[in-house]
Design a protein that fits this description.
This protein is mainly alpha-helical. The chain folds into two domains: 1-35; 39-66. The protein has helices at residues 12-26, 28-34, 41-65.
Length: 66
């Protein structure tokens, strides 16, 4: 849970901006999106493998460029 203390002379917009940044740093929105729908473990593993393939392809492509 993200918590932001509002100071005496603090404007609401600044406090809200700090709250949004802290939520972003903690990864709250990403976690919510990930858990929005149930995902079977087999599909989760399949997605993980595909992401790894993409990463490997990307790194190989960058290494070939230099």
């Amino acid at each position: 849970m993200s918590l932001v203390k509002i100071r005496d002379n603090d404007i609401f917009e600044r406090a809200f901006r700090r709250f949004k940044k802290s939520c972003e740093r903690l990864g709250v929105l990403a976690e919510v999106k990930k858990r929005e729908h149930f995902e079977k473990p087999s599909i989760r593993l399949k997605k993980k493998r595909e992401e790894a393939k993409k990463r490997n392809f990307k790194t190989k492509k960058q290494q070939q460029r230099y």
